[in-house]
Amino acid sequence: MGSFQQLKQLTRGNALFLIIILGIGGTFQNGYHITGLSSPSPYIQRFINSSWYDRYEEPPPPQTVTMIWSLIVSMYAVGGLFGAVSVKLISGRFGRKKAMISNSIISIAAAGVMLASKQAKSYEMIIVARILYGFSAGLGSSTHVMYLGEIAPIKIRGAVTLTSATFSSLGKLFGQFFGLSEILGHEDLWNVVLCVPVFFSLVQVLVLPFLPEAPRYLFIEKGDEKACKKALQSLWGQGDYEQEMDEMLAEQAAIDAVPPKTPLQLLRDRTVRWQLLTMSIIYWSNQLSGMSTISTFSFDIFLKAGLPRDQIRYVTLCLGVFEIITSISCGLLMIEHIGRRPLFWGGYGVMGAILVFVTVTLNLKDSSEWVPYITASLIALFIIFFCGGPGGTTGTLLSELFIQSDRMAAFVLIGSQRWFFFAMQGLVFPFLIDALDSYCFMLFACMCLLASLYTFFLLPETNGKTLLEISEEFQSITVCGKSFSDEIKAATRL
């Protein structure tokens, strides 16, 4: 299906509007909070100093300020981990729509705590707000991707689920934009900068109740065929949607034979072992590819590369624009035409090569005044290939690999892993860059190479296939002449 036909189908019903509303309350929030803390960081550290002095009438020890600041940064990932773990409980019990609304209410509460922290002179309230923001991001990001996968017709499922990556990139850009000194990047407004996403959460709370629930959830988990058809027609316009209904009927028949699983049961299930292994490796590779590090520590990296300090914020803003343009282009032009698999192995391969060149230019930064700008250009190219490849396609793949009975448990496991690695990276990378200096990017390059080899040889193409067909593809993967399907047959005979 061409990009024009995709856009035409999106505008036939409420689908495009729902995608936007889900996006601003979903991955947008996580993207904003990843970059939004960078600009006010010196002001918050001064606030910690002044708050401590007001209480104890003496300046705090430097290590105490560092510890409190580390807690403010890292508690976001801890909250995200708990949010990811709660996806099955909240989304399964209340449905996708109510889970997203509840998630936005948590985000609004977090903003209230953050706003009040300055007046109360309490850095503890900042930590609490960051935990709540993290919980909201962990729950919202997973539920957002799940919701998108359950509203999308097969032909444009990739393009629809890819919007989660687009809104994450948009959130990062907004975080960088509002942090500029010309906008809200002033010392007296540091708490306001960290509360900007609350306006988008409020819009979602007010609007989402009037939009449809996920059709797949209504049909498979609630058994309401009439409500499912009504939701499909509301989203995508009038039609019989026979292909979508047939797929859901086949999936429901498979689920009737096997009830929904807990995360522990899913880990023990041999039939989904390749899917879990694949998604774990891909998320692990994404975290260790260097992209998260570049997003979180972009200021430090460009400073080390030799860029003038006063230009760095504008360079990172330009990178955010590149990220959004690439994500949108991937959704409209590539993911349904090229397929998922080439975007993974090709993206990882090119990213690895770029990181090798970044290592070289970082070591040559003093040889010429234009070398730092080559480094910035290479990092921009790296971001383009990440967002147009693995970064943009990962959410789509996750929504395609698991049938309804396995999906929520899979989101819990993969989401927990993602947030755990995010927290560990935040703690380890500052020490890693001190120990390895510019050669830390060679570590990321090796990870990209391994991910490229894995996805080239073992990842099946999922484009245009039903969830059951994809499951069969994974079961037929052969390594050393053996496949899981052969092992299952042998176990059955015994």
From TrEMBL:
Pfam families: Sugar_tr. It is found in: Cell membrane, Sarcolemma; Cell membrane. It catalyses: D-fructose(out) = D-fructose(in). GO terms for cellular component: sarcolemma. GO terms for biological process: fructose import across plasma membrane. GO terms for molecular function: fructose transmembrane transporter activity. It is a multi-pass membrane protein. Its main location: membrane. InterPro entries: GLUT, MFS_dom, MFS_sugar_transport-like, MFS_trans_sf, Sugar/inositol_transpt, Sugar_transporter_CS. Keywords: Cell membrane, Membrane, Sugar transport, Transmembrane, Transmembrane helix, Transport. The chain crosses the membrane at residues 12-32, 67-87, 99-117, 123-147, 159-178, 190-211, 274-294, 314-335, 342-364, 370-388, 409-433, 439-459. Residues 19-463 form the Major facilitator superfamily (MFS) profile domain. The keyword Glycoprotein does not apply. Belongs to the major facilitator superfamily. Sugar transporter (TC 2.A.1.1) family. Glucose transporter subfamily. NCBIfam families: SP. This is Solute carrier family 2, facilitated glucose transporter member 5. The lineage of its organism: Eukaryota, Metazoa, Chordata, Craniata, Vertebrata.
